[in-house]
UniProtKB/TrEMBL annotation, chains A, B:
Taxonomic path: Bacteria, Bacillati, Actinomycetota, Actinomycetes, Micromonosporales
Protein name stated in the entry: Gamma-glutamyl phosphate reductase
Record keywords, A-Z: Amino-acid biosynthesis, Cytoplasm, NADP, Oxidoreductase, Proline biosynthesis
Enzyme Commission identifier(s): 1.2.1.41
Pathway this chain belongs to: Amino-acid biosynthesis; L-proline biosynthesis; L-glutamate 5-semialdehyde from L-glutamate: step 2/2
HAMAP family named among the record's database cross-references: ProA
Native species: Planosporangium thailandense
Subcellular location, record wording: Cytoplasm
Principal location: cytoplasm
UniProt domain Aldehyde dehydrogenase: residue ranges: 5-281
Gene3D superfamilies: Aldehyde Dehydrogenase, Chain A, domain 1 (3.40.605.10), Aldehyde Dehydrogenase, Chain A, domain 2 (3.40.309.10)
């Protein structure tokens, strides 16, 4: 079936899902969870075929691990759906309301977006997570996963669609878009009037191409060149703990730190401890001249950082490091190289914290906390569909509210202007 | 100067404007208002040259009227700036905040968008209005007006920039983009990384081309094929009054009605009154077969409506009219031909009102009120930059809040995850 035709079906299904009650949607979410667990053998068999094909094609161990499902991971997907069922329904929430001087009653009400397109890479759990969040927010969803996970995704979507039908909701509210060619991504990007928003989740290149080419509105997610700035007034023990957590606790995610900035006043004592600690944690440091020199003095090898290093989202155990002369220089460096995701300062100074949080332009600005906290669950949103790094519509972790729009409802008694 | 270079200057200015206090911004707005009044002769002389050139080029009387300034209109622009100075500052507003279970203090704070690009047509008052709203919301603005108003716009922007400088704010927060070629609109659309959002205000064609080609995020505004649906349970006196108001009070604006749908059960009595009343008001009716026949019976000429008529935003004293068999058919017609701007039902039935407001997908859905009420000032927002007909970021009249984004500020005490 063409993406256009899938879009038409999704649009028709969206009209039904949009007005479904919370009780119906939650029943569908629970039915989806139960069905995933009940039909786990089917899903695992499909996934096994994907994993075998991936291994034969020489896929890396890390990617294979992201691709592979097991009973535990399927339980996790089911648990995610049940958790979403437990969240409040964003649809119908009155965002603001008042009675105007002329007696008109005005309400701004949260409504679904309509049809959401999601383009994502290997991880098959995104299939169930995204479908659940979109459904709860009253949207239909077109899921375009990676071709390497296509059998797994097809099996999961098949299970979810059956559960929708059993609950009396249109199965076409959840559809998988064929992943065999890049053409289907292009078709999604051009499905203006059928798809209301496109959310690319994945590498910088995918996101850039969608942003450049899409005529459907896009929410950019996830590219994170996140900085930890160790201020002159930092508690260096705290700074080191935050740095190691932000860099090493999960290097492959977008809220991991990729760059360290150290104020010159504390560079000597901080790098003396940080460089060996980073080495011991398996981190490769790419430093400016000051850092290379500091490494040399301590016998810790430091690679020379290029401009590309300072702009890189490594997603690996690499870190760019620069010494800066002032808070102002740190803010300037972040403005130049940051991607507007998460930026942290470690400082004991109220003034420095205030200036940093005011002037740094990013989705999340953290004081004395690891960048790893920028996350929908951590922020208490219950679940997230991604982390927006753009300024329109949603910025930062996107929960259910961010999958909605609003509508003004105006009640009069024959009012004319 | 190239648009790129203007964008760079705007971005630099935006960093200053973003952190300016409300007192400073309001002082600048008042200085801008005073300067416009004081230097009115300059502005009027430039406008006179535009008007003369327009008349020589055969511009229509309606367009010449939109283009022409006079002392009264300049006072109006100054009044608009003073009104914006009186509005609360959206920047810094805490949208939500809580202390997370782990003790992290989370705040979502309103921040400026950065650099706003506005592409608009003849009316020079938009120049001052848009500059004022963007400044108050902490943004720099690139204004790309029409070439027919270029002298007027240059004079106004010159006055505003001087007032900014006198207040100690960077003049580059307000810049006029050259209007001599379409190329500058394209450059604005491609100024990703410099321009944060582009707002096209104007005809459907301009908006379509910006939406199709822009890599900068766009907020669509204003195309309004607005419907009045007269339900079976309508008070026909009320319906006629609302129809005439929505169609004739100001036919050239986006919230004017362009299409009338009448339930078959009341078509005969309603059209018997509406068709002559519309004729008397100078309205040309484009009707379906039922309406043509009803016109024939009453001796009121009705043109045969085509598909194009039902999709048209006339912006003139024309109206498409169709008879529908049910509320469901009316909702289906609106889903097919509407532009998601403002849709009104006239009904005495709670059920019909409920179904219409729930199922019709538009920025504003009105019950027993004229579509003309969809307006930032009417809604109590103080002023508006346009009316968004898209679902992302802002939908409906956009006031100061809609010219902002948000940022999460997270305060910890050494938190790691």
């Amino acid at each position: 079936m063409s993406v256009q035709e899938q879009g038409r079906r999704a649009k028709a299904a969206a009209a039904t899902i949009a007005t479904a009650t919370r009780a119906t949607k939650d029943a569908a979410l629970r039915a989806m969870a139960d069905a995933l667990v009940r039909r786990a053998p089917e899903v695992l068999a499909a996934n096994e075929a994907d994993v075998t094909a991936g291994r034969d094609a020489g896929m890396s161990a890390a990617l294979l691990d992201r691709l592979a499902l097991n009973t535990y991971r399927i339980e996790g997907m089911a648990g995610g759906l049940r958790q979403v069922a437990g969240l409040p329904d964003p649809v119908g929430e009155v965002v603001r309301g008042s009675t105007l001087p002329n007696g008109l009653v005005l309400r701004q009400v949260r409504v679904p977006l309509g049809v959401v397109g999601i383009v994502y890479e290997a991880r098959p759990n995104v299939t169930a997570d995204a479908a659940g969040l979109c459904l709860k927010a009253g949207n239909a969803v077109l899921l375009r996963g990676s071709s390497s996970a296509e059998r797994s995704n097809a099996a999961i979507v098949g299970v979810l669609r059956d559960a929708l039908s059993e609950t009396g909701l249109p199965a076409d509210a959840v559809q998988l878009v064929e992943a065999s060619s890049r053409e289907t991504v292009k078709q999604l990007m051009r499905a203006r009037g059928l798809v209301d928003v496109l959310i690319p989740r994945g590498g910088a290149q995918l996101i850039r191409s969608v942003v450049e080419e899409s005529t459907v509105p896009v929410i950019e997610t996830g590219v994170g060149n996140c900085h930890i700035y160790v201020d002159a007034a930092a508690d260096l023990d705290m700074a080191l703990e935050i740095l190691l957590n932000a860099k090493t606790s999960r290097p492959s995610v977008c809220n991991a730190a990729e760059s360290l900035l150290v104020h010159r006043a504390v560079a000597e004592p901080f790098l003396a401890r940080a460089l060996p600690a980073l080495r011991d944690a398996g981190v490769t440091v790419h430093g400016d001249a000051d850092v290379v020199e500091a490494g040399g003095r301590r016998g810790v090898p430091v690679l020379e950082a290029t401009e590309e290093d300072f702009g890189a989202e490594y997603l690996s155990l690499d870190l760019s490091v620069a010494v800066v002369g002032s808070l102002d220089a740190a803010i300037g460096h972040i403005a130049r190289f940051g991607t507007g995701h998460s930026e942290a300062i470690v400082t004991g100074s109220v003034e420095a914290a205030q200036e940093f949080t005011t002037r740094v332009d990013a989705a999340a600005v953290l004081v004395n906390a690891s960048t790893r906290f920028t996350d929908g669950e951590e922020f208490g949103f219950g679940a997230e569909i991604g982390i927006s790094t753009q300024k329109l519509h949603a910025r930062g972790p996107m929960g259910l509210s961010e999958l909605t729009s609003t509508k003004y409802v105006v009640l009069g008694t024959g009012h004319v202007r």
